[in-house]
Each structure stands twice: as structure tokens, then as C-alpha cells.
């Protein structure tokens, strides 16, 4: 892959609306913001957008009442997965890009919102996902490839999980250089 910067992503900004409650118990909007992009790995040129984080299940969804202010946990948690709760993120893949090969100790629900990406697994299996396709990623070693000339965007909800155990050996989180 070329070291030249990819063209600017043509997708609209990722807007996040978070609802909650007033002290009188009425519904209200706590946040209506355009999320700034961040990097999801040290070697990645592709942006991710942090949308929401919970640190436990069941999730505490009343901090604006119980603590007197809304606590936006995603701002304090750069880790990709919440082991005791959930994360919600958007990822963009520039044309021709490849993510690092990785495994997280989580179950991830993914939806392709725009474009097309290839899920490549450790055994060499490759599955092309197109707009509207979904994937349930269950702690497997994998990478994402955008083999097209167009940008792609995926949304993921990740939930912490028990590590996969094979013959008494647990498979830990792992990151390898780009494939």
C-alpha cells in the first residue's frame, strides 16, 4: 500500500445524539454532536469514531440524575472493548486499506453502512460484505480489507466476552502488523 495520504472521505460527518432525562423525569437530549475522528491503532490511517461506552451490564443509564450531570464514558475510555459493558463505534476504510490483523476478547456486531469490505480470517477464508450486510465477530483473528476504489464505513457494537478456550489455552487479545 502506498504511503501517500488517502483522499478525503466523502461520507458525511458522524453525528451522535444521546438522550436522557431531566430531574423531573422528562426525556431530553444530552448531546447532539459531530464526533471527531480518532485512530484505532498506531499504524492505522483510517479513522474511527467513538460513539458510546458503558462500563457494566446492565448499563447505568441515569448518570445525569444519579450524579447530577451526564457522564460521557467514551471520552474516558480509549480501549476498543469494554470488558464489562459495551462500546459503539464507527470505522472508515480508505480505498485499498488493510487493518491490522487482530483479535479482541469480545463479541462484535457489525453493519456495513457504506461501501464494501472484505473480512479475512486466519485460515485464509475471505468474505465480502456489502452495504447492509452484517457480521457477528466472535473473538476470531481477522483483518478488514477495502479492495475497492471507494471509501467504506462500518458500525460496530462490541461487548466484552469470556476468552475463547481451546484445549485449555485461552486466546488473548492480539494485534499483528498490517497484513
Walk me through what this model shows:
The chain has 179 residues and is an all-beta fold. The chain has a single domain, classed as Jelly Rolls, CATH 2.60.120. It is 2% helix and 47% strand. The strands form 5 sheets. The chain has a 6-stranded antiparallel β-sheet, with no helix packed on it. It has a 3-stranded antiparallel β-sheet with strand order 9-8-11, with no helix packed on it. It starts with 14 loop residues before the first strand and ends with a strand. The mean pLDDT is 90.
Keywords for this entry:
RmlC_Cupin_sf; 3-stranded antiparallel β-sheet; mainly beta; single chain; 2% helix; Cupin type-2 domain-containing protein
Question: Main β-sheet: number of strands, strand sense, barrel status?
Answer: 6 strands, antiparallel
CATH topology: Jelly Rolls
Query: What is the name of the CATH class?
Result: Mainly Beta
The strand order across the widest sheet is 3-4-5-12-7-10
The CATH architecture can be named as: Sandwich
Strand tally: 15
Structural class estimated from helices and strands: mainly beta
Poorly predicted regions: none
Helix percent band? under 10%
The helix/strand order is: EEEEHEEEEEEEEEEE
Number of domains: 1
Intertermini distance: 10 Å
The number of helical runs is 1
Strand percentage? over 45%
> How much is the radius of gyration in Å?
18 Å
Outline type: globular
CATH homology-level superfamily: Jelly Rolls
Q: What would the average pLDDT be, to the nearest integer?
A: 90
Organism: Mycena maculata
Domain Cupin type-2: 91-157
InterPro entries: Cupin_2 (IPR013096), OryJ/VirC-like (IPR047142), RmlC-like_jellyroll (IPR014710), RmlC_Cupin_sf (IPR011051)
Protein name: Cupin type-2 domain-containing protein
